[in-house]
Amino acid sequence: MSTSCDPIMFLSGAGLPAWIWDDVRRDLGEGQHTCVASRPQGDRPRLRDYAQVVIDSAPPGGFVIVAHSAGGVIGAEVARLAPERVSAFLAISAVIPQPGQSFMSAMPVPNRWVLNAAMRVAGTRPPDSAIRRGLAHGLDKEVADRIIADFTPESPALYRDRTAHRSWSGWRGYLRTTDDHELPMALQQRCAQRLGAAWQDDLDTGHLPMLENHRAVAAAITRFLGARPSHRDPSTSRPARPLSW
At what angle do helices 71-81 and 47-57 cross, to 10 degrees? Predict the structure, then answer.
């Protein structure tokens, strides 16, 4: 189904297990090499550690990033550290901070204050009720239960570490989720602008579209990759403008 010759590296949102991508990976077809980024080991890793694990575990050569939610912050750091290896970047309801900002500071007020206070009191694992109400909105009860059971707290640094200036000129896209109870549409639109997304589309799902409508996500990934300038008539293609976060 996919039109990419480069492997696709999926970056899950904070706390989310690798299996959330299983159906999307199957829908893309056996001819498309895919993998899911793991999390760094050790006590309280930094944002750079998250990014370095992605780079170290990626197949040799170039690869496509498909980043969800907080995975957008990690993907942005990967593009800064290894710009020559990232051939395309698709953000799915993902947080893209401005230079010098963090995941936390990219949140609008008062969400930022609420998140900061909650992390100080309860750490980085939301209550089950909050996961069900927000993150798992739109999912069947059985799937929501599995998300809750498999949710893994992240290092606070993933949310608090500030990003650095980076310049990258690859193909970029943003897939918004219009029924999202975690990231408001206005925030998703700002993140798409920060990413410099030349390709954009919407899905009528909650924050976990890969579980709510995996076929639509796989189809969107295929459209995004097929729309790259290298896949179009060279006489009508324009190079992507360099991206500076």
Answer: 70
